[in-house]
């Protein structure tokens, strides 16, 4: 009788421990209705109801993991950003504007030139960070040129203002450089600035490596935005590979030998010889030895030395 009642309530989804506890309290001859009432009074629920009561929880996946679970998306972004082969661009607006204005005027036109340059290359994710107080009317100690460009870029969801406010007449400004590095790091993009962010490098070791490897410097030449062709030096990647998620390795090209036919290294020469593409490259000494060897006639022995 005990086993039959245990199987019956197990099929309903109740746990064995709760069923055995109720049967011990009520006795083995207790009716099924009484056992069911006691289970409900104890607060025991079938497993199916417990699974429905628990809401599905979103799993947060660590950045860089190989999990197939899709991560949380940034608000206002398209799914096409992930399929783009070009890296996201995060522009230090204050640095670019002051550089274009010769460190005297906050030139918003310089920001527009930088944005247009990356647009022409096909970058879809471009963000410019500028302090909020730059929306205020210009003053003599902080002149601003072409301020209407900031409003146009803000309407295009390209320009982002970092927060600032006034407390007792003093302006409290949030550190915009931290916004720039943090967003670029999380998006695995490129920082466009001539600043080295040394304070942020010392603050976070992961940011230190990222800033060293993903900082794109630039110059303005006659109102032309010009980043370098070798952002990480002569032995680093090209600008196209630097701005691409999947860099393309260049084909190996053989450099012709500077000595030409007068080369005496033979098969040990590391350069390319167009005059002997399909011949075994022998050293000059080996070639001379091969030429001096004369085959002997059959039946004759070599003369004694």
TrEMBL record:
<keyword id="KW-0540">Nuclease</keyword>
<keyword id="KW-0863">Zinc-finger</keyword>
<dbReference type="GO" id="GO:0036464">
    <property type="term" value="C:cytoplasmic ribonucleoprotein granule"/>
</dbReference>
<keyword id="KW-0479">Metal-binding</keyword>
<dbReference type="GO" id="GO:0016787">
    <property type="term" value="F:hydrolase activity"/>
</dbReference>
<protein>
    <submittedName>
        <fullName>ZC12D ribonuclease</fullName>
    </submittedName>
</protein>
<comment type="similarity">
    <text>Belongs to the ZC3H12 family.</text>
</comment>
<dbReference type="Pfam" id="PF18039">
    <property type="entry name" value="UBA_6"/>
</dbReference>
<dbReference type="Pfam" id="PF11977">
    <property type="entry name" value="RNase_Zc3h12a"/>
</dbReference>
<feature type="zinc finger region" description="C3H1-type">
    <location>
        <begin position="251"/>
        <end position="276"/>
    </location>
</feature>
<keyword id="KW-0378">Hydrolase</keyword>
<dbReference type="InterPro" id="IPR021869">
    <property type="entry name" value="RNase_Zc3h12_NYN"/>
</dbReference>
<dbReference type="GO" id="GO:0008270">
    <property type="term" value="F:zinc ion binding"/>
</dbReference>
<keyword id="KW-0460">Magnesium</keyword>
<dbReference type="InterPro" id="IPR051101">
    <property type="entry name" value="ZC3H12/N4BP1_RNase_Reg"/>
</dbReference>
<dbReference type="GO" id="GO:0003729">
    <property type="term" value="F:mRNA binding"/>
</dbReference>
<dbReference type="InterPro" id="IPR000571">
    <property type="entry name" value="Znf_CCCH"/>
</dbReference>
<feature type="domain" description="C3H1-type">
    <location>
        <begin position="251"/>
        <end position="276"/>
    </location>
</feature>
<keyword id="KW-0255">Endonuclease</keyword>
<dbReference type="InterPro" id="IPR040546">
    <property type="entry name" value="Rege-1_UBA-like"/>
</dbReference>
<keyword id="KW-0862">Zinc</keyword>
<dbReference type="GO" id="GO:0004521">
    <property type="term" value="F:RNA endonuclease activity"/>
</dbReference>
<dbReference type="GO" id="GO:0005634">
    <property type="term" value="C:nucleus"/>
</dbReference>
